[in-house]
Batch of 3 targets.
Target 1
Amino acid sequence: MSVAIDVDAGFLNGIRKIADEFAAVNADDVDRKARFPVEALDALRADGALSALIPTELGGGGISFEAVAAACFELGRRCGSSAMVYAMHQIQIACMTRHLADAPWFEAYLRDVARDQRLIASVTSEVGTGGDLGRSNAAVTPSRDGNATFEKQAPTVSYGLYADDLFTTLRRTPDAEPGDQVIVLTHKDQMTLEQTGTWDPLGMRGTSSPGFVVRAEFSTDQVLPTPFPIVAGESMVPVSHLLWSHLWLGIATDAFDRARAFVRASAKQRPDQVPPTAQRLSHLMSELSLLRAEVNSALRDFTEASATPDRERLSTMASILRFNNLKIAASEQAPRVCQGAMAIGGIVGYKNDTPFSVGRHLRDTMSAPLMIANERIHERNALLLLIAKDV
């Protein structure tokens, strides 16, 4: 146990250094130009951080999920876009490592990720599905040479042009139902990406997420053996919500820290008085504490469930509701904290060129309710609450 703790601690020390020296230094430029955070990702590669979740027997870091979640928090405190890219990459890694099913091709691929620090993006959204992760139109289509192909119209593919590989959800066959899905891992040299849109959003600008038509030809060995509905329930959905909530917490924490720095600066100007904004800072700390408590509680629930042989309970209605509610709560609370920080700082919090600026923080967290839209999650929760006996 102490060895694992030491490994996690060393990993997080490296992440904090990268967050401070690369992510933070370039965050404003990444945001201003809506460019990929290449400096932070290059540093993460050099540190071997892209293979953190891969087991040591496959060449990876063998880092705990809790430490990777903490890494998303640390990166989020410095650059939301860098943290989001890192989180989304680790979501794909978690889906593979937790659902390998003794697939030799995927075991070899994870060794390649560990050796070459390959960056993985996902193609889960699709035109015509209404944002429903559990439905696909595009399908794995057999080709004459024994391989397979697909063509998928994706409204967004985060950092697709910068990824080495894509993780794509598809119908199992052209005749399969929309919910009979699999995941395919394809390399850049097996694909063509036809860009169909631009990327000039309000926040999370460095994720570089325009739409694409993605076409690929690949071996059938590159289809993950575990059906996607199982992967989604046990891994993709809870892992996504946990890592996203950690980086949103990181962004909100830095916004609070900037508001606190402003209040302290005001107090130094008149040391005989408590600034009026100090009481508002106390209220804001309560808001941040609620967010932190929800995120930490959900992480404990997930790690406890993942440590048991019956990991299937992550797919129960109670667990689905639990992690859906985490996503809703975190995605709504983080922008509130950032907005409260801006209110405390006033004009210097609103401006982009001050040490107390939280404009980027607010804009980045405003994307949170849109990532798997909260209204869609509420709709699913409503159906589950009608039939769930014990939640």
Target 2
Amino acid sequence: MKNQLIIILIAIIFMSSFVLLHVGKLEIFAQKEIQNKSTANSSSKIFKDVQGSVVQITRENKEAPTGPPGDKNVTSLGSGFVFDKEGRIITNHHVVDDSKNVDVTFIDGNRYVASVLGSDPFNDVAVIKIKQNISGLRPLPLGNSSAVEVGDQVIAIGNPYGLAGSMSLGIVSQKGRLISTEGSQFSIPSVIQTDALINPGNSGGPLLNINEEVIGMNTAGVLSDSGGFSGIGLAVPSNTISKIVPTLISKGNYTHPWLGISASTLTSKLTENFQNLSRDFKGVYVDLITKDGPSDNAGLRGSTIDQYGDKHGNDIITAVDNHNVTYMEDLVSYIDENKRPGDKLNLTVFRDHSYSDISVVLGDRSNSTKSEERKEPYG
């Protein structure tokens, strides 16, 4: 009898644990469902609030001189978002290209003609202005992209493949990326990476946080080997936009500092170009120097090739203005964010197993014809 009671008690304890475990799982599931529903509701509200401030931009391509007659008057599509109540709209440089006027279509179908006020091909930013007077425009506020964290929820809105007013959700996958731009040998620094779907036609559209602030402008999506979306979307950070746009409005262009080198992040493989250099040495490997450019005039040295075709390294940049640099992104971002043409830049260089400081007077990138840095693997 005593043994039977013990067995019954054990069974009761087991069943109670089983029930509690499943109740706990149901509570967790319910909480996740509530969170998912809350996220969906929040995203839906954001879209309804901002959709009237996102536009489709259409430009007419020039007929290619060697192309077939059917290519005449082919149009290109992109996106943009309202910057102010005066009718200024922000988009990508590659969306407007060298056009003087483009068409702007709002989500309600209203279409207007806009003139291109200014464009910066190096950071892929452009400002256009609607020629007609329009009331009721709702500008989208620019947020602080420096405050963005990996894992933050983001929303991309644009017109992929001409499908007006499309929204995709994602997170910030990483920040501080360095990407090459279409038609330019230079790179955009501090770019935001996201897994939100970015397709052709999304270019120029806003990347928003949950506070309905623009923290980036969708610029490119990296394609997979099969030609589909790879899960890597790229956006110009809002702080870059905030810095460049006022100058584009007032002057029509933006000047960037120019160092005059082709370089890349030092890798274990590149350390083999030096004698007795540790494979874990960190810095930026200087490969090529632009003749008569800022770095050449300052005495910086690039790599050389001997009579046997072997490459030998000379200079490794380890710090800029006493700030350590490990990646090429560190160097480019620091210069772009803190310097202007004509400013002095102090480089700490490792050469012949010793360190030295070299002062460079930065040039104007628009006057250069050579690449300042090696292209990164993002298109």
Target 3
Amino acid sequence: MPTIVSLFREIRDPRDINARHDLAELVFLALAATLCGAKSCVDIAEFVEGREEELKEIVTLKRGCPSHDTFSRIFRLIDPEELAQAFSAFLCAVRCELGLPSRPRGVVAVDGKALRRGYEKGAFFMPPVMVSVWDAETRLSIAARRASGSDEVSTTLDLLKSLDLKGCMVTADALHCRPDTAKALIGRQAHYALGLKANRRKLYGCAEKSFAAAGTLAFYETRESRHGRAEVRRASLLPLKALEDHLLFMRRAKAAMAARKCAGRASCRSRRSRTAFPGLKAIGRIEATRTKPDGTTSIAIRYVALSKVLAPKRLAETVRAHWTIENQLHWSLDVVFHEDDARTRKDNAPQNLALIRRLARDILAAHPLDKPIASKMRRANWNRDFFHELFTHMR
């Protein structure tokens, strides 16, 4: 625990010299309260008041218990970038203590999540958005940052450029299937698997026609039955060479009635423009057939732009690994930490408290007890020894 408090001391105190409470202690108390189920600054203040004697064994609380206004004000004022740096430093320390590599090596998922009730007054249609970078192998966060002006793409680019992702397979949804994102990942010596939809009209149309013309391809199939429904997924892949050959054939057939010289130029232009995506090596396809309890069946087909040719099985595993950011991180933040119900809105408070929640979630997830995060949170609130163990087991 002293290590965590020392990391928080790196955050610059934005208050005047007459501040009554130590900044690092306030941030630690907020983290401790969140670990035990606190959802707001009022909850944090009540937690500190209720466990004052126990907390004095960790921090000094020289001026007594801070009020909820003190917590609210400090989180409005703290620079989110400095808190994010402390967040990253702590996560590095966690990985080190758990014997994990200092940087991720497998699938890294990127996704944004809206803080649905954290909007400014009168701007309910524009809630703040937090972009998270997630290590799908260890199920731990890597970084998180608020999207300025809800511009998730630019924020993601800034985050990716600040991380060491060498050799990782970075996954993201179709919003990030852009040449600048692909170029940034290649520049970081990482691979990408980006969802491909109609927002990349030419490439998407090329993928549809190429897979239709390719006929039967090698595939990897998985079957799953849950919640009364059965789902069969088939993953297949088409290398870039096959896409280009199909495009060239289509263009030549269409240009056969034109003059030879013009047809040749049009073919070259089409080949360059319709496959010009940095680092693209293949397109993957996931075909999911879902059968509901009433017997009705639906088919969904998704395409993935890849910078590396993968085996169908590896493609299926990579796409499924991406969804852990939804199932393990975002779901937990909403259901366990009630992030969507958080009413904090002013200044820097929404993103600062969002970082505290992510830090608490990672601490709870890193504990070896084979229980859900919600169960560990209740134990931390009820059991003093378990509360201390959340920190000491990592040393």
